[in-house]
Protein: ABC transporter permease subunit
Amino acid sequence: MLSAKAPAGGRRLGRSATLVVGCVLAGLIALLAVVSLFWLPYSADDTSGGRLAGPGGGHLLGTDKLGRDLFTQVMTGSRIAVEAGLGAVLLAAAIGVTLGVLAAFAQGWLDDTLSAFLDILIAFPTLLLAMLIVAARSATLGSAILAIGLAQSAVVARLVRILVKRVLAQDYITAARTSGTSWPRTVLGHVLPNIWPTLVVNLALQFGLAVLAEAGLSYLGLGAPPPNASWGRMLQEAQATFTTAPAGALAPGILLVLLVIGVNLIADGVRETLDPATRRRRT
Structure:
């Protein structure tokens, strides 16, 4: 009996450690982003540090090819990454949950049409969508968030549609409707509370994907314009000087990876904590 219980305790400890490590990794970068709102070592356009200076002399990570402080750019990039992730996820959640619930209640040809529309939107490349939005507007962080959020909203909508249909087939929904509960109250009181654990985990994963997508768009010049120092733009600018000043590429690259890993660990920990079925299987 004792040997059977020990692994379960170890698994519970492992799940807690996963969530803690994820919170630490993502939390430190989020803290860096918050600090950047109120304080930066140098201004974004300060080029007084000298070209490609090494760490030290008032520059923690050194300077880039224009003489700008790299630590200042890393701090600014953390803020842009968090803003892009949160903005895209909130937009995807607002649109995706609404479309997903509507699609779940649709029947016949309307259900087929909405499902086909969501599949087409999911298959539509985010980069191409970003190019279209940038062509209509301009290359800004807002345009990148809009493109990423619209692309992710289809993924969220399809997931919500599947989850809501599954909940609507349950007996307690039939009982609620028989008792005279309106559909809006049924959705708010029974449907959404039963799908939110899975939805939250998916949105956490979408956050990490949004951060990567914003970095990719900025690398191609479709994200926040200069002097905003997105991590993707930093990687693009540092590739030509990597051998002489590797910090310009290593710092944003490492932080980008750590943020995505941290968010994924949080999603994994939250899933195991909120999903009773997962807890039963693991224990």
About this structure: Residues 2-38 form the longest helix (37 residues). The mean pLDDT is 82. The chain has one domain: 19-31+67-273.
